[in-house]
Write a structure and sequence with these properties.
Elements lengths: L1 E7 L7 H12 L4 E6 L10 H5 L6 H12 L2 E5 L9 H8 L11 E6 L7 H11 L3 E9 L9 H5 L2 H14 L1
Parallel strand pairs: 1-2, 1-3, 3-4, 4-5
Length: 172
């Protein structure tokens, strides 16, 4: 049994990136358990003082790190804000730079918008710098409508299904 963790870089309910990951969960092959990480907003701002201090890291950080550790592979999807990675998502990644949960971990990056010309490559660069095993065939752009998208509509689109399944297969 393979464990795939999905992580949306968006905190917005109804996010096209979160919807894309929910569709991926529905389309995962037999033998793949998909869990969505839903606590990104709970992770406090990264501080080396909290990391290196005498107390254990905050509980939300420990939960994040544990979720990454338990996953066999991770599929990220994130919007672009002001030509960059959303703050909450980048903050979560900052918490695992030194602790190593992503080192050699297979990861993919889906983008739900072709307009995301800056964040998508930035995420790939950050993950590569962190020594994650970025899987090229699981790192793709699937251009979707920005609003009014639901999982059912996505999994009814044969072209989208083919691309999502191919990305998951490459990742697993």
């Amino acid at each position: 049994m393979k464990h795939l963790l999905t992580v949306s870089g968006s905190l917005r309910s109804g996010s096209s990136n979160s919807t894309l990951l929910a569709a991926a969960a529905r389309l995962a092959p037999a033998g793949v358990v998909v869990n969505a990480y839903a606590d990104l907003a709970a992770i406090p701002a990264f501080s080396p003082d909290l990391e290196d201090g005498p107390s254990p890291v905050p509980e939300a950080v420990a939960h994040w790190r544990n979720a990454l550790t338990e996953a066999d592979a991770i599929l990220f999807s994130s919007p672009e804000y002001a030509h960059g990675i959303p703050g909450a998502f980048k903050n979560a990644l900052d918490w695992v730079v030194g602790s190593g949960e992503l080192v050699a971990k297979p990861v993919g990056v889906l983008s739900a918008s072709a307009a995301s010309q800056f964040a998508h490559p930035q995420i790939v660069e950050v993950l590569t710098t962190m020594s994650a095993a970025v899987v090229p065939d699981a790192t793709i752009v699937i251009d979707l409508p920005r609003r009014g998208l639901d999982v059912e509509r996505l999994i009814d689109d044969a072209a989208v299904v083919i691309r999502i399944r191919a990305a998951i297969t490459a990742l697993i």
